[in-house]
Amino acid sequence: MSKQQPTQFINPETPGYVGFANLPNQVHRKSVRKGFEFTLMVVGESGLGKSTLINSLFLTDLYPERIIYAEKNERTVQIEASTVEIEEQGVKLRLTVVDTPGYGDAINCRDCFKTIISYIDEQFERYLHDESGLNRRHIIDNRIHCCFYFISPFGHGLKPLDVAFMKAIHNKVNIVPVIAKADTFTLKERERLKKRILDEIEEHNIKIYHLPDAESDEDEDFKEQTRLLKVSIPFSVVGSNQLIEAKGKKVRGRLYPWGVVEVENPEHNDVLKLRTMLITHMQDLQEVTQDLHYENFRSERLKRGGRKVESEDMNIDQILLEKETELRRMQDMIARMQAQMQMQMQMQGSDSDSGTLGHHV
Ligand code: GDP
């Protein structure tokens, strides 16, 4: 994997801000001239603050130029891709954000999984086609290099849908789990939720993106930065499109009766860490996409003798996923019923105890 350089703090107004101008450290000069291409997918239930966070992260409103791939249909998920070109100190980044509005809204999630998985596969398919064509020098890489998966702050960890979806895509894309709306819990609750989510990820063998360890000859600052990023996963984030006056400065934040939650304050939430992770590991995310996920896809295609993934195979996968989700839901329900019964039995026990006492008195 690539060697990373220490962070450059290019924006004195915001300590800890890592700009795109940091990218040339990671790649060849030629790519600097051409610009960088990166595709980020965001998935999560609606209302979790996905679009607000993306706008806060890249300080730009992405949505006016979006291209809608799937027609609006209330019962299924849509795929919306927006591309922006961001330039900092002469370095160009062509960033495509693929949003998935409607995910998790339908009662039956079969279609929403299917639409997203097909979209990911189609990008691999297109790349494979272009790669074997004549014009190999000008391939546009639309493969998904990273997926921010948004987890609700209101649940007690992962929902069955989260588990089933992450498992459905973990061999296809780099998943970065993100806890939405970090302003809705206390520090203690945040740590508890992060630990619980990590435990559940391990328990269900979900493969998320692992930041590579900094090499021993790496700069001490970079090693420390990597360590900090690793312990912050899953990143808990706050988004806002509003500028608010705080301590004499205008900051992006959310105003509450008791104070301001600042988006770019590392003490308030992990937005800056998430941005730093994305920028300092952009090349690694691309390499893992190429060497692991795309190779998986290619070898799967070879095994099938070049045949595309048939819809029949897809259906079997979907059925299995649904069964798994249903099973988890039932297990949760049984656990809740058992806990309720136990509580009732305890209450009955203590009632009869107090009854006996009363009789003696
Ligand atoms: P999306 O459907 O996931 O794209 O969600 P939106 O970005 O449209 O946000 C949904 C609502 O949540 C809006 O009213 C936002 O103002 C609000 N929101 C966004 N981010 C945050 C956050 O970090 N904390 C809180 N409390 N609310 C947020």
- Between the first and last Cα atoms, what is the distance in angstroms? 77 Å
Per DSSP, what share of the residues sits in E-state strands of 2 or more residues?
A: 15-25%
H/E series = HEHEEEHEHEHHEEEEHHH
Q: Bin the helical content.
A: 40-55%
Low confidence ranges? 1-13, 62-68, 70-75, 355-361
Indicate the structural class: alpha/beta
Which strand order does the major sheet show?
2-3-4-1-5-6-7
Radius of gyration: 23 Å
The whole-number mean of residue pLDDT values reads 79
- The number of helical segments is 9
Total number of strands: 10
Bound molecules: guanosine-5'-diphosphate
Major sheet size, sense and barrel closure: 7 strands, mixed
Describe the global form. globular
What is the gist of this entry?
This protein is α/β, with parallel strands linked by helices. The chain has helices spanning 29-34, 50-58, 110-131, 160-169, 187-203, 220-232, 271-280, 282-303, 311-360; strands at 36-43, 67-68, 80-88, 91-99, 146-151, 175-179, 235-236, 243-246, 249-256, 259-262. A seven-stranded mixed β-sheet has the order 2-3-4-1-5-6-7, sandwiched between helices. It has a three-stranded antiparallel β-sheet with strand order 8-9-10, with no helix packed on it.
Question: Which descriptors apply to this entry?
Answer:
globular; 361 residues; disordered N terminus; binds guanosine-5'-diphosphate; alpha/beta; disordered C terminus; 44% helix; seven-stranded mixed β-sheet; 9 helices; three-stranded antiparallel β-sheet
